[in-house]
């Protein structure tokens, strides 16, 4: 059979491949210590950086956590050999089999186990192989981890628990290797939920999650594991949970997204700037889904008067709905148009129809146009 | 445990009432009282049922199922066909023509042996590495290819990743990636079959890894208490992706769990197609006759990588794989049996391999040419009919398709009706 380009993901189209968007993205630090101009990074004393991809940055964070906290353990399905996405590579041999190990194939078991470890005051870092497979552990997360502190009157808590899970679309994942289940967890008081967009963000947010005294879920956009590479500080550092990041300032429209969706939004903004040269756009990475940084979004929308939210999860009860409700309440008189959402449709995540389902560049641009024409 | 009990050097006889049966409601199997404080850790290890030795000789002639030449050749041909399918689809994935694939190498006997013992009325719930079961039930090469290509002829309408087959015609429920979810479902299906009075069982396949999920334990227990005629067929192939069984469980395999759920259980050599056939045939009869679940553990070895996303040399020695292939190939063993009977020879082998490869390639070429499912199928089947909000979303997509024909190019897709 003759070799032929990969034809399965997207059928012929004028749209650029996602990988190209990531490779030219301005969100990724390629200028070594330029990253230290960012106030969130400026307090890091060592200015050394290393160019690494997303999974290596995760690996670095995990190693740092294990190094700095003797109680920390790392476990999950296939974690010992490095994990199916290579995030725990080399850690078993470096930290020992009692600290880095495979669990039997049971998400409810391994998350419950992690809660128990954390409730004893130790640090538990659990890996769920795909976010799509977190649901067997839903009971342990929703009814147990999230309520452990509250129900005991703060006698007990499992704040040392962190759950990492790869999520979001990859172009060929279908129903069960593509989902973005953030909205399910956003409905659970007691949990925190973050979605890092890049290697440097992943390292800092993951370390913050591990050290935060509350159970935290970190959803890592799996498409970025190999695709996204940047110069990441070598030092041990954390980034704030519960804080959004303004990636680009602008006057006429606020655009909110998280995870890999941001690269699509970045390109949509580039095209929008070309299309409407007199307009400028404010792009916000929400980063934390719970608790979420309403202040930053409200402040932005009060300035721009327009809000576009984009996420891959379905429309109905997606996290965009929560943002829209909050902003409608807080910014009503400043809004030039109703809050707009571009999301997955209310169907299971498809396979062959993925490019029509996801909030693509063209769908986002179309919605921007509608916002301006309102 | 009911043996006369003595304590200390005095040989004092235990008072008779101590030996009486335990009457608590939880003691359902007739426990006796004892004053011997003892933890049980050593259980008898379950044997592994085998019909053929590695040379394809029947060990005990009474156990030879006596399948006809025609059936034996059909089984063997399907083993070869499955291999041909796997070779070409694996290669197709490497070339980027399909997005994903999982091979079945090494587990051919578990597939053909079990499928041969079932009827088309039996209802199958698979995990994913049971393509041979489907093949043996009559799934055509075109059907395999159409699914892997997500084309418009795929019964699943291009919605799931390759190898997530399903066939109403063949009573094979559509594969779902989340592991072990099908196991309690199979129990329920069996219960419904029993109530309908059909002479059919539900058969559920799963890996030894999936058997660690809560759903597995829930399934065995509910099948036992509801007396559902379901065969739980575990393919214990030694690995769950990279995880060896040592990290998966510490008991006597999966079969030992049958005891805990009060269930008929057998362990079988999964590389011996006749042993698998005999075990499943007998289990099926038992399940139907007594309305009981049966647990079957087939020991085998996953020769291929877990999937096209996996490189198993990262966690197991290539030599380990090669040794298994050389020393205990289910296909070779059965071929030797056929050759002893005079039903197969080198010429037949060469001819079968050639024609099967050609057939697979033809089906492959046909599937590649078929367009993808129409865009309307993004929305159909979420419910039985389209509710208003999905009608609105479909209309929105339609508007976008018309407005952006280049960016949202639909040339590869069938046009909506
Ligand atoms: C609930 C759930 N968790 C994790 C996975 C990811 N996963 C897919 S296959 C697999 C290993 C399954 O091993 P086993 O059941 O032994 O079957 P085998 O692949 O050996 O045939 C894992 C962990 C999944 N599909 N579903
Ligand atoms: Mg297995």
Structure description:
The complex is a heterodimer of chains A (374) and B (417). Chain A contains 15 helices and 14 strands. By secondary structure, chain A is an alpha/beta fold. In chain A, strand 6 (192-194), helix 9 (199-211) and strand 7 form a beta-alpha-beta unit. In chain A, the strands form three sheets. In chain A, strands 3-2-4-5-7-6-12 form a seven-stranded mixed sheet, with helices on both faces. Chain A folds into two domains: 31-233, Rossmann fold, CATH 3.40.50.970; 243-373, Rossmann fold, CATH 3.40.50. Chain B has two domains: 61-368, Thiamin diphosphate (ThDP)-binding fold, Pyr/PP domains (Rossmann fold); 375-412, no CATH class. Chain B has 13 helices and ten strands. Chain B has helices at 69-94, 108-116, 131-137, 141-148, 182-196, 214-225, 245-248, 256-260, 273-290, 318-327, 330-341, 346-369, 388-403, and strands at 6-7, 12-13, 123-125, 172-173, 202-207, 230-236, 239-240, 243-244, 264-269, 294-299. In chain B, the strands form three sheets. Chain B has a six-stranded parallel sheet with strand order 4-3-5-6-10-9, with helices on both faces. A two-stranded antiparallel ribbon of chain B has the order 1-2. In chain B, strand 9, helix 9 (273-290) and strand 10 form a beta-alpha-beta unit. In chain B, helix 1 (69-94) packs across helix 12, helix 2 packs parallel to helix 3 and helix 4 (141-148) packs across helix 12. The radius of gyration of chain B is 25 Å and the shape is globular. Thiamine diphosphate (TPP) sits between chains B (129, 177-179, 207-210, 235, 237, 239-241, 302, 306) and A (77, 105, 107, 129, 133, 136).
């Amino acid at each position: 059979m003759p070799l032929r380009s990969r034809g399965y993901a997207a059928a012929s189209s004028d749209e650029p491949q996602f990988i190209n968007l990531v490779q030219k993205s301005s969100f990724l630090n390629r200028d070594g210590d330029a990253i230290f101009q960012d106030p969130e990074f400026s307090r890091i004393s060592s200015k050394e950086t290393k160019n690494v991809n997303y999974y290596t940055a995760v690996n670095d964070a995990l190693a740092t956590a294990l190094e700095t906290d003797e109680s920390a353990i790392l476990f999950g399905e296939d974690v010992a050999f490095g994990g199916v996405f290579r995030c725990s590579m080399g850690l078993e041999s470096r930290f020992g089999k009692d600290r880095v190990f495979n669990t039997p194939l049971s998400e409810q078991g391994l998350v419950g186990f992690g809660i128990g470890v954390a409730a004893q005051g130790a640090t538990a870092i659990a890996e769920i192989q795909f976010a799509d497979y977190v649901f067997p552990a839903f009971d342990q997360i929703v009814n147990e981890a999230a309520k452990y502190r509250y129900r005991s009157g703060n006698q007990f808590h499992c704040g040392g628990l962190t759950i990492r899970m790869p999520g979001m679309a990859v172009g060929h994942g279908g129903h069960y290797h593509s989902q973005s289940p953030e909205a399910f967890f956003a409905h659970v008081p007691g949990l925190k939920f973050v979605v890092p967009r890049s290697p440097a963000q992943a390292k800092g947010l993951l370390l913050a999650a591990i050290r935060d005294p509350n159970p935290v879920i970190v959803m890592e956009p799996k498409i970025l594991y190999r695709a996204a590479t940047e110069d990441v500080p070598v030092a041990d550092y954390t980034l704030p949970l519960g804080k959004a990041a303004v990636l680009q300032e602008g006057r006429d429209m606020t655009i909110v997204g998280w995870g890999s969706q941001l690269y699509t939004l970045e390109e949509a903004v580039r095209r929008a700037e070309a299309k409407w040269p007199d307009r400028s756009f404010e792009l916000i990475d929400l980063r934390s889904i719970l608790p979420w940084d309403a202040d930053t979004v409200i402040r932005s929308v009060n300035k721009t008067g327009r809000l576009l939210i984009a996420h891959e999860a379905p429309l109905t009860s997606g996290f965009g709905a929560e943002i829209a409700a909050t902003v409608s309440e807080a910014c009503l008189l400043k809004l030039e148009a109703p809050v707009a959402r571009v999301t997955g449709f209310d169907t299971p995540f498809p396979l062959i129809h993925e490019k029509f389902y996801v909030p693509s560049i063209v769908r986002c641009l179309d919605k921007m146009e509608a916002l301006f024409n309102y | 445990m009911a043996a006369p009990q003595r304590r200390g050097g005095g040989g004092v006889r235990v008072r008779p009432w101590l030996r009486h049966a335990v009457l608590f409601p939880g003691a359902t199997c007739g426990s006796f009282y004892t004053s011997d404080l003892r933890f049980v850790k050593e259980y008898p290890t379950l044997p592994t049922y085998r019909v053929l030795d590695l040379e394809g000789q029947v060990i005990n002639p009474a156990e030879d199922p006596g399948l006809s030449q025609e059936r034996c050749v059909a089984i063997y041909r399907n083993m070869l066909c499955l291999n041909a399918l796997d070779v070409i689809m694996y290669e197709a994935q490497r070339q980027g023509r399909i997005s994903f694939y999982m091979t079945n190498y090494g587990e051919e006997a578990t597939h053909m042996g079990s499928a041969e013992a079932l009827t088309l009325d039996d209802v199958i719930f698979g995990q994913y590495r049971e393509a041979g079961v489907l093949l043996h039930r009559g799934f055509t090469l075109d059907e395999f290819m159409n699914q892997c290509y997500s084309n418009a002829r795929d019964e699943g309408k291009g919605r799931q990743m390759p190898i997530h087959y399903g066939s109403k015609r063949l009573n094979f429920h559509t594969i779902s990636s989340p592991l072990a979810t099908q196991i309690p479902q199979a129990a329920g299906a069996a219960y419904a079959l029993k109530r309908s009075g059909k002479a059919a069982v539900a058969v559920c396949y799963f890996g030894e890894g999936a058997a660690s999920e809560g759903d597995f334990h829930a399934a065995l227990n509910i099948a036992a208490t509801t007396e559902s005629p379901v065969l739980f067929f575990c393919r214990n192939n030694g690995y769950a992706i990279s995880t060896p069984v040592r990290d998966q469980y510490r008991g006597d395999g999966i079969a030992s769990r049958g005891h805990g759920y009060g269930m008929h259980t057998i362990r079988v050599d999964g590389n011996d197609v006749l042993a698998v056939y005999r075990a499943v045939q007998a289990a099926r009869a038992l399940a139907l006759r007594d309305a009981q679940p049966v647990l079957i553990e087939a020991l085998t070895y996953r020769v291929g990588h877990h999937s096209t996303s996996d490189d198993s040399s990262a966690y197991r020695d290539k030599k380990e794989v090669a040794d298994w292939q050389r020393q205990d190939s289910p296909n070779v063993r059965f071929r030797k049996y056929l050759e002893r009977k005079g039903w197969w020879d080198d010429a037949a082998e060469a001819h079968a391999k050639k024609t099967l490869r050609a057939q697979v390639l033809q089906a492959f070429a046909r599937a590649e040419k078929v367009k993808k499912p129409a865009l309307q199928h993004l929305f159909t089947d979420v419910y039985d009919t389209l509710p208003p909000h999905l009608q609105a979303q479909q209309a929105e997509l339609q508007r976008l398709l018309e407005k952006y024909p280049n960016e949202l190019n639909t040339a590869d897709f069938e046009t909506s009706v």
